[in-house]
Design goal:
Length: 1079
């Protein structure tokens, strides 16, 4: 009646030789009779009393369900066989059951009656002098139980010889079920042994497919035990068998098993080959659902190898197949993979679209784990974009889903994400509380590493509030926690934080000691990211101790290390990413040089810092910069890079294991060294043929002192800013006929105070009110060295080189006595000094090409706005009017205008090469977190713009259309611009909201770099949006002066002066947003 499975400990009990026993034993007969009588009487208590107390019995609910469904009568009960196995008595019983159904009736309303001849296997054990049941089921189940318990091949053979009629599919199925149940309770060793028995039975009955399935399950059991060689052997044995019988389904399954083991052993190249072979079989057999799942695996491998385009292709195809197969959870997994790759690539808009699909599926199914993961991913993207309020809301909602599923480890991680978000937003009190809650959640599940990270995060929050004593205590606690976990690198990183806390408390000797404790183990582990940080921390301490020489020596080491990491290690091995804040080593060195009176040395260091920042921003997407390369060169670079990254990741993973394989590490190190040599040779060959490509990728050398000074126009001043944590350095270079003067001024002040004053300058109400502006600007000017401001104001022409947040400052509008700086000084801007890359385009045949007012439908507007809260497109009529009025200035030859549906990417590409000036009055967004993904939004051709009806708000995004041409997809990205060859010397991008996102203005140097590499020398941009007609008037006047022969800088200066001269438009909001970079 019941197919109850005895506990596996019972199944695996010691096996004793079997012996036959008479079928007429009265005690056995009585036990059998009671078994049937209790069922006929529907006596639940009586039936349960038949069972041994040592095994799991059926529940009263189960019995009630069976008894309520019908009445049973048993006749012709006969004991067919009795066998003793150790202390177990196995009894095979035959009986006829007549069941009168209580739920099924005939048309006349009478109950239906079913007659069945049953064969049952009952197993008894003697308990307290009576026979008690330990199992009941089919004879095949009973034999399977005995085979599992048998300890030797001979014992198993005896069992099979005794009951040859049971050797068949039912026995194989019974063994397989028991193996699956063992896997379900994580008894993998037992499961492996059971599946071995299943394989033996399958071979004995000639069921080769069954044998293959048993081998697959054997491999799975070993895989779950991390016995990878044994798992691989089982999968390969199945693969050979399935190939012999040409079973495509089995071949694909075996290959997937092989691939999974290879992936788990970090053999990514071999894993990808195996996955690809399995996918080819699934493709051939039109197994679209399985193929979709396999493509997720290939996407995972390609992602780890750094082959983002390949991963995107596989995840997109997977998503399409799973969507068509109605495998919506699988589709969500593909979307998660896509989102992960887009995030790593820096394409945050596409990442948000993918994660929105995950979220929609989670909400449709009320799948809390899926919802939690999707919201966490969405929060992470918004955090990177600087949309902190949205990030916080997403993290908090995600945390709620993890709490509902009792996933305290996930809850702990989300509290930390919330805390970091609040730290960046300067909400230090809430951050402290969130770190405390993270500690509580992680402690509850004994996640000690999570606890340690929360403690160190708490310390940082305390230090940020200048609660240095509390921070020091927390850092020490965190260091101890990481040390106990043998996380030496993390402990060293925390020591750097401790050094900074001591520095804040003005305990400089203790700060030096903490930096030294961080440095020694970090050097031993070659944890270079920690090494340079510890060196910078030590240099700061030496500086405060008045030991400038020692400070400079240590920070030179740090800068040298960062330089090697950036231009040596990272070039040879693309997995070695350098943190963006590594520029702090150069900043501190420049400040020390300035304080030592070496202004020219500080100037050179400032250029090296700018070059370092540029290379760091370009490195992640350097293979997207390829102009001049042949298809064969691009393919070679791709192949060599992917192979090198794959080996590097394998080596990193092996070293991180609790017991790393030293021999394997040695082999991987040799392989990595050879791959690095091969790639380095290929890179040098490529750069030898295309020397400018090295520069476009940010790998050129920073300008020397002479080159930097030569970049300063005669009669002009250059004012370059360097912002460090607690100091502002301003470098001034003035070239006259009498020579060149280089001055360096340092003013103490925390970066946070500077950021607050800059933020105050950007308030709309302040910009519109001259009095309020003067007050806010005076507060900002108070943070600058007076001598530097005086030199800037004394120059009739000046080039400003801002740093970071200072790109938001309209220096033209700074008050100098009773006037604005622009009333006495004509300003332009530059990203750095020295030669910039350029490319010679065709001789322009068209004076101006204007691109304006593209058609952007509501779903695209929604996707754009997802990355920029509150964004709305400019009215099409205003943008079109601006472009037409600029174009109307040029009649011989005439300017060209692309607007509305004509303003496509392909049309721009076709016509931009022959235009002298490019005027873009289309939506433009600077991606502060990933500048090469800054985008101009254009019209999409009608065929590409169509999408399935289910896409849009409230639905998962429609599957990717692989036929859409990336060169005409409606978005012109900076990484695409850098590969164009343009004839224009000037580009005007008039969208005033372009750089309003967090860090958007700071990313302008990279945006300019991409256009400069394409041949454009000067760019005109706006820091904020203003009245459309005023902007149109200013740009019309600007173009008129350019047409008359003015350079872009003087032309914009004159156009802005005309607005400033009018009372109605004298406030900075109307004219001070515009700037020229490079002109």
């Amino acid at each position: 009646m019941f197919a109850l499975i005895a506990p596996l400990l019972l199944l695996l009990a010691a096996f004793s030789p079997l012996s036959a026993q008479g079928t007429d034993d009265p005690e056995i007969r009585a036990a059998v009779d009671r078994f049937f009588e209790m069922q006929v009487a529907e006596d639940m208590e009586g039936y349960l009393s038949l069972w041994s107390s040592t095994v799991q019995r059926p529940t009263t609910a189960q019995l009630k369900y069976i008894f309520d469904s019908g009445d049973d009568k048993f006749t012709d009960i006969s004991i067919v066989r009795v066998t003793t196995v150790g202390d177990r008595i196995r009894v095979r019983v035959a009986a006829t059951r007549e069941r009168t159904s209580k739920v099924n009736t005939r048309p006349d309303g009478t109950p239906m009656v079913f007659n069945t001849r049953l064969t049952l296997a009952l197993t008894f054990i003697r308990e307290n002098g009576a026979l008690k049941l330990v199992s009941e089921g089919t004879p095949a189940d009973d034999l399977a139980t005995a085979l599992i318990a048998a300890g030797t091949p001979e014992a198993r053979a005896a069992l099979l010889d005794a009951e040859p009629d049971l050797i068949g599919q039912m026995l194989l199925s019974s063994l397989s079920r028991r193996g699956e149940n063992a896997v379900g309770v994580q008894l993998y060793s037992a499961a492996y042994a059971i599946f071995e028995r299943a394989a033996e039975i399958a071979r004995r009955i000639g069921d080769r497919k069954g044998e293959g399935l048993a081998l697959q399950n054997m491999g799975n059991a070993k895989y779950f035990q991390h016995s990878f060689p044994a798992a691989l052997d089982a999968y390969r044995r199945r693969l050979a068998l399935e190939r012999e019988i040409a079973n495509d389904e089995g071949i694909a399954s075996a290959l997937l098993g092989v691939a999974t083991v290879q992936y788990s052993q970090f053999e990514y190249g071999d894993a990808l080959a195996s996955y690809r072979e399995a996918a080819a079989v699934q493709e051939r057999t039109h197994d679209d659902s399985s193929l979709g799942t396999t493509l997720i695996s290939t996407g995972n491998v390609l992602y780890l190898q750094g082959d983002y385009e390949g991963a995107i292709g596989d995840y997109s195809r997977s998503r399409e197949l799973l969507h068509k197969s109605f495998n919506l959870l699988g589709e969500a997994r593909a979307l998660e993979g896509l989102g992960r790759v887009y995030t790593a690539q820096g394409d945050y808009a596409s990442a948000l679209t993918a994660f929105a699909g995950m979220l929609a599926e989670g909400r449709a199914r009320t799948n809390r784990p899926l919802l939690g993961n999707a919201l966490q991913d969405i929060g992470d993207v918004h955090f990177r974009l600087g949309n902190l309020d949205i990030a916080r809301a997403s993290f908090d909602e995600s945390r709620g889903h993890f709490e509902a599923t009792k996933d305290l480890a996930g809850v702990g991680r989300l509290w930390q994400a919330l805390a970091i978000t609040d730290l960046v937003a300067s909400r230090f009190g809430p951050a402290e509380q969130e770190y405390g809650r993270s500690m509580a959640a992680c402690t509850a599940v004994d996640d000690r590493e999570c606890v340690a990270r929360a403690i160190v995060g708490l310390a940082f929050a305390q230090s940020s509030q200048e609660h240095f004593d509390d921070a020091i205590a927390s850092y020490r606690k965190g260091i101890d926690a990481f040390t106990a976990l043998k996380k030496t690198t993390e402990a060293s990183r925390a020591e750097v934080g401790l050094s900074q806390a001591y520095l804040g408390r003005k305990d400089y000797q203790a700060a030096l000691a903490a930096a030294d404790r961080a440095l020694k183990p970090a050097k031993a582990l070659e944890a270079n990211d920690v090494v340079w940080r510890a060196q910078v921390a030590a240099a700061r301490a030496w500086r405060r101790l008045g030991q400038a020489d020692k400070a400079m020596a240590v920070v030179r080491e740090a800068a040298g290390l960062v330089q090697r990491m950036t231009y040596g290690d990272a070039v040879q091995n693309p997995t070695n990413r350098v943190a963006a804040d590594a520029v702090s080593a150069y900043a501190l060195l420049a400040i020390l040089q300035a304080e030592a009176g070496d202004a020219r040395g500080a100037l050179v260091m400032a250029q090296q810092r700018a070059a370092q920042a540029r290379r760091t921003a370009l490195a992640n997407n350097e293979r997207d910069i390829w102009r001049g390369m042949t298809p064969a060169e691009r393919e070679e670079e791709h192949t060599l890079t992917v192979a090198l990254i794959s080996t590097s990741v394998q080596l990193e993973q092996e070293r991180a294991l609790p017991k790393p394989d030293k021999a394997r590490i040695a082999r991987l190190e040799l392989k990595l060294a050879e791959q690095t040599r091969t790639r380095t040779v290929a890179q040098e060959r490529l750069f030898g043929r295309l020397p400018e490509l090295r520069i476009w990728r940010g790998l050129g050398l920073a300008p020397t002192e002479d080159e930097a000074i030569a970049a300063v126009p005669s009669g002009s001043a250059v004012v370059q800013f360097v912002v460090d944590e607690d100091d502002l350095l301003v470098l001034t270079v003035v070239r006259t006929g009498e020579g060149t003067e280089v001055r360096a001024d340092v003013k103490a002040g925390p970066r946070q105070a500077l950021a607050e004053k800059v933020a105050a300058l950007g308030q709309s109400a302040t910009l519109r009110d001259p009095a309020a502006w003067r007050e806010a600007a005076a507060a900002f000017l108070a943070l600058l060295p007076e001598e530097a401001v005086a030199r800037l104001a004394a120059s009739p022409r000046a080039i400003v080189v801002p740093d970071g947040i200072l790109w938001r400052v309209p220096f033209e509008a700074l008050p100098i006595k009773d006037a604005y700086l622009a009333d006495r000084t004509a300003l332009t801007y530059a990203a750095s000094l020295g030669a910039a890359p350029s490319s010679a385009g065709a001789q322009p045949a068209v004076p101006l090409l204007a691109v304006a007012a593209p058609d952007i439908d509501a779903p695209r507007i929604e996707r754009i706005a997802a990355t920029v809260p509150g964004w709305t497109p400019r009215p099409l009529e205003a943008a079109e009017r601006e472009a037409n009025e600029a174009a109307a200035l040029f009649d011989t030859p005439a300017a060209a205008v692309l607007s509305r549906g004509q303003a496509t990417e392909s049309a721009f590409r076709a016509q931009a090469q022959g235009a002298a000036i490019l005027h873009v009055a289309a939506p433009f967004r600077v991606n502060g977190a990933s500048p090469l993904f800054s985008r101009v939004f254009l019209s999409i051709p009608p065929a590409a713009a169509s999408s399935p009806a289910e896409s849009g708000p409230g639905h998962a995004p429609a599957p990717v259309d692989p036929t859409v041409d990336p060169a005409d997809d409606g978005t012109l990205e900076s990484r695409e611009i850098v590969n164009l060859t343009l004839g224009a010397s000037l580009a005007v991008l008039s969208d005033g909201s372009a750089a309003t996102g967090r860090d958007g203005a700071a990313a302008l140097p990279i945006v300019y770099w991409s256009w400069r590499a394409a041949g454009v020398q000067s760019m005109v941009l706006s820091r904020w949006g203003t009245d459309d007609q005023t902007s149109t008037d200013l740009l019309k006047a600007f173009h008129a002066r350019v047409k008359a022969g003015d350079a872009p800088g003087p032309a914009l200066h004159a156009a802005a002066a005309a607005l400033r001269a009018k009372e109605a438009t004298r406030a900075p909001v109307f004219w001070a947003s515009w700037m020229v970079i490079g002109g």
